[in-house]
Amino acid sequence: MANLPYSLIAEKAVLGSMMISREALLNCVALLEEEDFYVKDHKIIFQTIRNVHRRQLKVDTVTVSEQLALDGNLKKLSRQEYILELVDEVVSPSSAEDYLKIIKDKTVLRNLVSVANNIVSNWDKEEMEDIGTYVARAEQDILKITRSRNVGGFESARDVLKVLKEKLFNSSKNKGELTGINSGFKDLDVLTNGFQSGDLIILAARPSMGKTALALNFVLNAAEKTGRTIGIFSLEMPSEQLMQRMLSSSSNVNSSKIRSLNLNENEWTKIDVAVNKLSNTKIYVDDTAGAKLADIQAKARKLKNIHDDLGLIIVDYLQLITTPTGAKGDNRQLEVAEISRGLKEMARELRVPVIALSQLSRAVEKRTDKRPMLSDLRESGSIEQDADLVMFIYRDDYYRHEKDNEGEDKDVGIVELNIAKHRNGPTGDVELVFLKEYGLFSGKPKFE
Q1: Does CATH number 1.10.860.10 belong to domain 8-147?
Q2: Could you say which of 129, 236, 431, 437 is catalytic?
Q3: Residues 209 and 398: beta-carbon distance below 8 Å
Q4: Which residues, at least 6 apart from 294, have a Cβ–Cβ distance to it below 8 Å?
Q5: 435 φ, ψ to 5°?
Q6: In degrees rounded to 5, what are phi and psi of residue 205?
Q7: pTM, to two decimals
Q8: What residue spans in the chain does CATH classification 1.10.860.10 cover?
Q9: Is 236 designated active site?
């Protein structure tokens, strides 16, 4: 096979500069690894320079040569005077950062070649996974390589503050506007300032509390108020059933009547209006059951590439996602930890808020006060750790059937939405009203 991509001149220049300039030494030691060098002699010399530096000795031709001899590596070099040649050939140590970038770019190219070779060599193996996983893994491998191109280091406070000041100035010109995606619920947006880009948001509840319905309300509100693209991964419910729920919420027609088609003329008119309204939104649904984490990441990435205005992603729900770890029968908590971490990485990479629905453990049902707590997040504390925002749904009417003075059920439809964790803002409770027959949430009216 022909030589893989590398730059002999850049590798020699970097190693020589490291033995002349302390600035070049510190920069290259921090940003380069042994595998970044293609020439075998250069791998040995770089590792030796790094060892001398770690021993807090001055790095120069003498100390490096001595260390090579002590490690028995001097004889492994093609010629023993090579160390002196590296230093003699340095034109400008101050250009070491430019040489470093060339080396890193060649590393990326070599890794791409390696991934491509693996793709070619593995396609016909009998034990190959299903094609979706195979493609998603190849895409992930390539993405990891492209991410590694960033060889930057620290940013100064001055540079960070300059960007921050500009953002604050732009926000000040739009007072009253949210910095994130509008949820459609004023009291919630007051606490969150909208769903923020790059955030992993967990919406959790026990079954039948209305978490899917609330998530779909978020979708409808965001689509209407922002006009941006919304992606939904529905692992539990077919897309038609999901759209039927949104149709009920949007039209204010009872969902059971839509299912039975027992509709009067006025209701059919409402349905027609809602269909036209929803058809003009940019809502996309993927209803693949048992979707793998890698598939979700790949499909979300593709949606972002096609629709650069992607504003929100919904995943319903987290515990139904599968991973290669789970397929091998490993600990379920490790699998859920991998899923939550993967969803957080997806949110940051695509720079969109990701709302993941989650189940709660049965421990809730064993307590007198059945309001959820962070410890109730099912199967993994890593969900709490990875999430930027955790919201719990609690409906008192689900557990109690108290009557008011007129004999009617008390507080029916009153929902407590508790923000139990908020990495970048306040926590608190938001009261909503849930009209279950329409799958519709609204803010609770405030009376003086």
Answers
A1: yes
A2: 236
A3: yes
A4: 133, 136, 137, 139, 140, 323, 324
A5: -95, 90
A6: -170, 165
A7: 0.67
A8: 8-147
A9: yes
